[in-house]
Structure formats: structure tokens, C-alpha cells
Amino acid sequence: MDRKFEQAPNGESLGIPKDLFSDPARYDEQIPLWKRTVGFVKQYEKSKPKGREVLLEQLANSAVKDLSTLNPLFDNFALASQSRPDIDFEEITDGFIKHLEKSATRRSALSSWTPTRIEQLMKLGLEEEGRVQQTATKIKAVVFNAPDTIQESVDLHYNAAWAMVATIDPKVREELFSGLCLEKDWFKETSFCALAFHFGSLETGEIYSKYSAARKALEYVGHLFNVLHGLSIKAESRRVKTKYLRAGTAAPQLPTDLYNRMHKLSMEAMQKHPGEIQRQIDYFAAGNSDYTQPFLYTRLEENEDLANAVRKAHEKETRRLGKLLEEPTKDDKPYNDLLDIITTNISPLIFRVFTENEFLRYKQNGFEKLTKIPVQLPDSAVLSIAAKGCQTVEQRNAIIREVYESIVQKKAVNPSRTLLISLDQISEAIKVSQGFISAFDKEITIAIAIHRPIPTEEFGRLSSILEYHRPPISPEQYAAINQKLKELKNDLKIKFTKSVGKRGYSILVSDPLLREMGYRMLTFRQEDKGGRLSTGLQLAGQQFEFSLDPNYGLILGKDFKKIVSPQDQAWLELLTLSHLKKVMCTDEDDIADDLVGGQKQLEIYRKQMIHRAEHLRRQVPGRNFSTEAFSKCLKSHLPMRNLLEINRLRAGINLGGTLQTGIWTYVSGVEKDIDTQTAKPVKVAFKGASDDMRKVIPLGEISAEEVNRIEQEILAELEVA
User: Fold this and answer.
1) Which contiguous run of DSSP H or E holds residue 554?
2) What's 16's DSSP letter?
3) Rounded Cα distance, 459 and 447, in Å
4) pLDDT tens across 447-456, in order?
5) Is residue 203 classed as helix, strand or coil in its secondary structure?
6) Torsions phi, psi for 334 (to 5 deg)
7) Which of 61, 329, 627, 678 is the most exposed place for a label (fewest CB within 10 A)?
């Protein structure tokens, strides 16, 4: 398989095509950047050492500007090495990586690292593997260590904080938060950029405004991660606090030249702000580890009165900084856009997660949620209620009426119940915060949560109702779901056997609890451009539409315009990808084993197909894929089309991929007279489509009787279709 142009006994060519390198234009449409890669290699081959460095520099500069080209270029180098084993591609690849780092280090390019590009860089390091992942980590390191002034340091923190707040990818948010908290090897407390950022607190105008916004973003995202881990909504983020501690204790670790430079900056700051700096020096010199602005590297003689002075200085500093963060000056307001995004993107998530955690805590203490859908209040807020000891529907309705009427009338309507909360203050509380959750009565038999409603037109129809069609998700389950999502995306990337195609597939939901929640069907179609999947969800008698990106992440838009809570996003991705995996990763040749009803459904499935779907097949050991199969796979609709790369990835997880274990080859689809744009998707129902969900979320036991009943329902529906 590797790089020989083989030939079978019957004369069939095996392996990659002989003209792959000699006629790159023929394959450029199917292999991204192939013509460009071959052109570069040919020039490189003919050039002298100095000319080769120029070529590598030009290619690296281009790739850093468009990070989406990195993966195709590395893949192409690997593919080209099979056609031209006489060229040292290790030398080319190593030189390319070296120049990528050099290009990313340029201070002149710092302004080009916008929030969008920073997010793209983070995704590259999280979603790819091997050399691409390693290279992305190196680029992160050089970018975050490139700033050489206070303003450059603050600007980069600001853009990174913007990306952290604006992203909908929880992995990207965690990576950026961890990086900005100096927890990553690519950004440490010994970096000039990490230390110089703190001087932003002494600046004015643009620099201070960006500094304060970036700091506020860290605080809010820190609170979000706190509640996602089940901590109090009021708890200070230890990770953010430790960031400042790390910077404050970095002095002994600094190289002499950096230490001297930071000392010089401190002296310059002392001349500009003598009173303020002296307070900060006093506090730092006392060795208080929770100091919020640790950047001054000046040693003072011990002073017996220092402790009292430091305490007063710290209190004054805390008030000063808190006021500045909450009330920026007029000069600072042009850079409040990030603060607005924090308010709209992060603050609501914090309250939603906290509310869910609190209701789970109440549930553990015998409470039951009475309102499946929140009750609308006259002041545009919505009310959720949980209570203890409700045995009948009448009791449940009586409590809902009592709480509702008490809040609306602003007085207790049940004289025998002593209230814990002030009804007069509820409306005011909603105006100034996202909402609140509290026990309603002193006996703590009723709990309420009041928050702002979710506008359907702003959030999308699906976003607005999703929380009412899923089980409660604890912090531990949320973490388990995210780990499972990582596994599912990896399975879809490596273990797929077919694509969903333009015609698409409609998967009937077969899990009893999911059906009870209102889920009936998911539909997947390949979109024309960009590798996206158009996804439909039939839920509660309605049809909802959303899309998945090429890496199987949710795309905001259509009926899912905004994320109401991280649990909603995690649940929807888990539901979607577990069913998509059944379509894309089930062996087409043995599909009957995975169908609800087995052979009964197989007949219905085959009738719908009216053609043979293109797919991958694992061959017997000792046989390579044919040259024709390689070429046809390049023109296929599969999510990955390079058979060489497909087999390399599968060999890495012991799923064939070598001549000894069985090479995967491409099997062409056999189309009949059908318009895939207008034809209905293939309707199918899989056994175990929710198995990956059940590994992380308890969906209840399934009886044999229930399985049989649902099987009959599904088969009847398929026969009608």
C-alpha cells in the first residue's frame, strides 16, 4: 500500500495513481491545495538551500494567515511522499514548521490575531491530531509570547477574552480560559505578555478599557466554570485568583534580562503613579498571596507597621479597582463591546446552570418540579416552582396557583404559610439581575426560580424549548457528556463507512424515554458546500432545523440561534451525534444486525435505497486498494476522501488500515434514476442509537415488552412511508 505502484495478477493497478504527482491539475479539485503543494515541492527540489528557505517562508506566511490550509498541506506532504520517496519530506515538513513559528512570532502581525483567528487556532489544536495539533500548540506559544509592549499585551488578552466569551464551543472556551489563567505550557507566568498585562490597570483610555473588559471576561467565565462544576454562583474563581498569584510570585523564576525589564517598568510606573504604586508595593511586600495586581518587583525593608498599612491599602485598592471595573470612565466606553457580549453570552448561562444545579439539589431533598414549562408573569418574567409532598394533581395545581397569585398580588394569599422572601422585591430583583432561585416559605417546602424569558425570535424556536424536553443534567453528567462528545466526533472522523449524502437519512428515534420526551426523528442531509450537514429534528410534533459544521459541532442559526444553557447544547449534540454515528459508522454489508426488527426492516430499507450507497469496505489481509478505488474515492461525498489518510488513521486505532490487518477500500455507489435533491431521505430505525447517550445519562430501564411495542410502531410507520 505504502508507496509502490503495485499491480494485481489480473493486471489491475493497486495503490495511488502513477500520475498523481506528474499531473496535479487532474486531482486538484478532489485534493485541496494539491496543485499548489506539488508546485511548491517541484520548486523546492530545484532550488538551492537559500532559495528553499525563501519558499518555506512564503508558504508559512500564507498558512499563518489562513490556518485552514495547515491540515491539507500536512496531508499533502504525506501523500506526496508516497509518489516521490526520493524527496526528503521530513526535511520539508520540519522546515515548514520552523517558518510557521517564525512567521507567527512577528510583532507586525499581532494585530491580525483577531478573536475569530484566535478561536480558529484553538480549534486547530483541539480537533486535529499529530503534527497539525503539535504545530498549533507551537503557534499558540509564539503568538502569546510575541507582545513586547503593555499595549500589545493588553490587546492580545482582549482579543483572546473576546474569543473566549463569543465562542459556542465549550472546549475552545476552556482552552482559552485555561491559557489566560496561565495553566498551559504555551502561556506561562514567566512570559512578558502575561506580566505586562497587569500594567493595564494603571493606564487610561483604550488600554485601560480593554484591560478591564478582559479582566471582567475572566471573572465571569470563571464563575461559569464554577457553577458547571457544582460550586456556588457567588464563589470566587480560584483559577482566576491563582492567575494573579502566579504572576505575583514569578520574579524569582524570571531570566535576568526580563526581571530587569519588569523592574524598569515598575520604576516608570512609580514615577507616573507614586501614591497608587506605593500602596501596591506595600501590599505585595507583605507576602499576601491573594493580591490582585502582582507585577511590581521591588523589595522593601521590613516594617513593623507594615501589616496594618497593607490591610488598609488592600481595602482601598479593592474598592478602587472594583469601582473602575463596574463604572468605566467616558474615555473607556468605546471598548465596552466586550462587556456587552459578556452580559448577553455568559451572564445568562451562569444563572441557567446555577438554577439547574439548585433544582437538582432540591430534588435530592425530596422536592419535585411542578412546572414543566415556566409560568409567565405579568412583568415579562417567568416562574418555575418545585415543592415537597405533592401527592395529587389537585395539590400540585393549588401550589402553583398560590405562588403565582402571591407574586402577582405582592402579598401571601395563604394565611397559614409564612413566606421566606419579600414579594415586594421580586420585580426589582428581576430588573437588575438575570433572576434568582430561593425557598418560598420558611418551612422550606416550596422553591421558586424567576428569570427573564427567552425570546423565540432572538434565540430560535428550538433553543427556546429544549430545556423542557431533556432530563436534568448534573455537573458530573455534563463533564461526562463533553467527554463522550469528544469520543463521538473522533469516531465520526475515523470510523465512518459512508456519508449521509445529498438525499440524506431520516432516523426514527427508538429509545422509549426519548420518545416519551417527544423526540420522533432526526434527518441528516449533506449540504452543497463547506462540508456542513443540514439537520432536522422532529420534536413535540414540530419540525426544527439546524446545521453541523465539518467537525460535527453545532452552528448557530435557523431554529438554534443562541445557546440558552451549556446543558442544552451538550444534550442536543449528544442526541444528534449518537444517532448520526449509527448512520455513518454502521457497516453497510452487515446493517441488518443494527436495524430495529432486523431482516423485517432490511427489506423496507433496501426498497427505499433504489441504489447501492457508496461506502468503505475492509478487505482481507494482503490486498491493497486499487488505483481506480483511490481515484473514485477522491470524487466521493465521504467526509474524508483520501484512502491513504483513511487507512493511516484507522491503523492508529487498530481498526485495520495495513496490509496485515486489512486495508479499507472504496465501493462506488450505484445510482438509479433519481433526483437526490427532491427524493425523500432514506427512512431507517437503528437499535442502540441511544447507547452512547445511556453511557453518560440515565434514561431508565427498558423492558422486553416496551422494546417489542416500539418495534411494532416503528415497522408500521416505515411500511406506510
Assistant:
1) strand 554-555
2) S
3) 27
4) 999 887 777 7
5) coil
6) -60, -20
7) 678
Supply 72's cell numbers.
491539507
C-alpha cell at 459: 434565540
CA 338-339-341 angle, to 5 degrees, is 65
- Report domain extents, the chain: 146-335, 375-452, 467-603+682-720, 612-667
For 550, what's the count of Cα atoms within 13 Å in the CB-facing half-sphere?
A: 13
**Cβ-based neighbours of 337, under 8 Å, separated by 6 or more:** none
Question: What is the b/e burial string over 468-499, where b = at least 16 CB atoms within 10 angstroms of the residue's CB?
Answer: ebbeebbbebbebbbebbeebbebbbbbbbbb
Distance of CA 255 to the CA centre of its chain: 36
Please give the grid coordinates belonging to residue 204.
Answer: 487610561
pTM: 0.84
Q: Identify residue 207 by its one-letter amino acid code.
A: I
Nearest to 141 by CA among 128, 152, 154, 125: 125
CA-closest candidate to residue 647, choices 664, 661, 629: 664
Give the model confidence (pLDDT) of 364-416 as tens digits. 999 999 987 888 888 778 889 999 989 898 999 999 999 999 998 888 999 99
For the chain, helix (H) and strand (E) counts, in that order, are 28, 15
Query: Do you know the residue count of the chain?
Result: 721
Instruction: Compute the chain's Rg from CA coordinates.
Output: 30
